[in-house]
Amino acid sequence: MTNNASNNETSYSLPLRIYYEDTDAGGVVYHSNYLNFFERARTEWLRDLGYEQDKLRQQQNIVFVVRNVNIAYLKPALFNDEIIATAKIKKLGRSSMEISQKILRENDDKKTELLATGLVVIVCVNATKFKPVKIPDAIREAMNIA
């Protein structure tokens, strides 16, 4: 895992490898797996900032849920590719955040190719009632989005 986020940035990058299980019979990543790659980047970002989702549920009674996803598939990721999944805060609300995400790959010429883009709306909700609640100030500060 590589965190490209500093205290002055609101982005994260996670290197991943494409496994056979991620692909169809032709060796192309199955479309729904991009959701998994995006989720891993968001989860690892939160973990890197010091927040485990199970502990947030247990200690603060909150969870982050996906409200909306929009994905554009531009080029196929293939078996054994090394990709990078990114996440960057695009818009922040009281209880929600819009996260711009990308899947990138370095090609043979060492140039970065954009394989997919995603826009994911995440909502912080009460874990019992599933009603929106304010994103905790400590998390906002850690993501530098206060």
CATH class: Alpha Beta
The CATH topology is Thiol Ester Dehydrase, Chain A
Tally of contiguous helical segments: 3
What would CATH call the homologous superfamily? Hotdog Thioesterase
Shape: elongated
Tell me, rounded to a whole number, the average pLDDT.
Answer: 92
How are the strands of the largest sheet arranged? 1-3-4-5-2
Write the layout of secondary structure elements.
Blueprint: E1 11-17, H1 33-48, H2 53-60, E2 62-73, E3 82-92, E4 96-106, E5 112-126, H3 137-142
Antiparallel strand pairs: 1-3, 2-5, 3-4, 4-5
Protein traits:
single chain; 146 residues; alpha+beta; Thiol Ester Dehydrase, Chain A; 5-stranded antiparallel beta sheet; 3 helices; 5 strands; 21% helix; disordered N terminus
Would you mind describing this structure in some detail?
By secondary structure, the chain is α+β, with helices and mostly antiparallel strands. The chain has one domain: Roll (Thiol Ester Dehydrase, Chain A). Helices cover 21% and strands 38% of the residues. The chain has three helices and five strands; from the N terminus they run βααββββα. Strands 1-3-4-5-2 form a five-stranded antiparallel beta sheet. Strand 3 and strand 4 form a beta hairpin. The longest helix is centred in the first third of the chain and has 16 residues. It is elongated and about 45 Å long. The N terminus is likely disordered.
